């Protein structure tokens, strides 16, 4: 069975853009409006000779108890539970936000291997706020740019 890798993070950090990059498709809905991708989306990525299943998710706003936001949070937790490893996508430009801490807290309890992909890092150089993201306690932040490869 191929390993399952879930992409999680709050809305608008670039999960769907990264999904498209990893799966080389435009299947995931990339939106300028936060939170437009409501459902999980599955695709196949390849690394060397091996393939893996990539799961894109909606956002994660556990403060809200009802409606679409709670549904998105539930889907994200389910995707984490089903994954062999998780890519936690963060925004280098938007910085660390309270929703990121909530995701981090759930991820720590999940026991899954977590990779911190700090997106939108193109052109930041020395300005990359590594120590902010390091403080999440989930390992070394990895600067990436999903949009620019
Ligand atoms: P999602 O809500 O987490 O799935 O985020 P999306 O993939 O829909 O992207 C949200 C916004 O961020 C869109 O306007 C993207 O074009 C933009 N975006 C995604 N990746 C990058 C990146 O690497 N750099 C920059 N500057 N913008 C990006
Ligand atoms: Mg999306």
TrEMBL record:
Binding site for GTP 1: 9-16, 56-60, 119-122
A molecular function GO annotation: hydrolase activity
Domain EngA-type G: 3-149
Keywords for this protein: GTP-binding, Hydrolase, Nucleotide-binding, Repeat, Ribosome biogenesis
This protein's record includes keyword Repeat: yes
Keyword presence, Nucleotide-binding: yes
Record-stated family: Belongs to the TRAFAC class TrmE-Era-EngA-EngB-Septin-like GTPase superfamily. EngA (Der) GTPase family.
Role summary: GTPase that plays an essential role in the late steps of ribosome biogenesis.
Assembly mode: Associates with the 50S ribosomal subunit.
Protein name: GTPase Der
Organism lineage: Bacteria, Pseudomonadati, Pseudomonadota, Acidithiobacillia, Acidithiobacillales
């Amino acid at each position: 069975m191929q390993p399952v890798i879930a992409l999680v993070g709050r809305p608008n950090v670039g999960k769907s853009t990264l999904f498209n990059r990893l799966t080389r498709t435009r299947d995931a809905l990339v939106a300028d409006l936060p939170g437009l991708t409501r459902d999980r989306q599955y695709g196949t990525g390849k690394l060397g000779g091996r393939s893996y299943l990539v799961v894109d998710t909606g956002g994660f706003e556990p403060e809200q108890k009802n409606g679409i936001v709670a549904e998105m949070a539930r889907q994200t937790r389910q995707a984490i539970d089903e994954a062999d490893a998780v890519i936690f996508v963060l925004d280098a430009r938007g910085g660390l936000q309270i929703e990121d801490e909530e995701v981090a807290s759930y991820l720590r309890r999940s026991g899954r291997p977590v990779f911190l992909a700090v997106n939108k890092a193109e052109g930041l150089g020395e300005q990359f706020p590594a120590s902010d993201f390091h403080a999440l306690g989930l390992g070394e932040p990895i600067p990436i740019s999903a949009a620019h490869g």
